[in-house]
Amino acid sequence: MSRGSSSWKRSELLFLVIYAICFYALIIYRSLQLTREHSGRLTGLRRGWMWNRLNDLSDAQWRNFRGNLPILTLVMGMFTLVATTLRSQYHLKGRGMSVIWLLVSLSYLLYLHGACVMFVLSIASMNFVLVKTFFCRYLHNQSISHAYFGCSTYFFLYGIEYMKGILSAQSGKVGLSWTTIVVLLDGIFALTLKHMQRCRICSSGKTCYLSLQERSIHTDKFSFSMYLCYLVYAPLYIAGPIVSFNAFASQLDMPQRNHSIGQIAWYGFRWVLSLFLMEVMTHFFCYNAFTISGLWREFSPFEVFIIGYGVLNFMWLKFFLIWRYFRFWSLVGGVDVPENMPRCINNCYDLESFWKNWHASFNKWLVRYLYIPLGGSRKKLLNVWVIFTFVAVWHDLEWRLLSWAWLTCLFFIPEMIVKSAVSALKAKSAIHEFILRELGAVAGAITITSLMVANLVGYVIGPSGINWLISRLLHRDGLPVLGGIFTTFYVGTKLMFHIQDTKKNLQ
Question: Where are the domains of the chain?
Answer without folding.
Answer: 3-55+277-326+346-506, 94-253
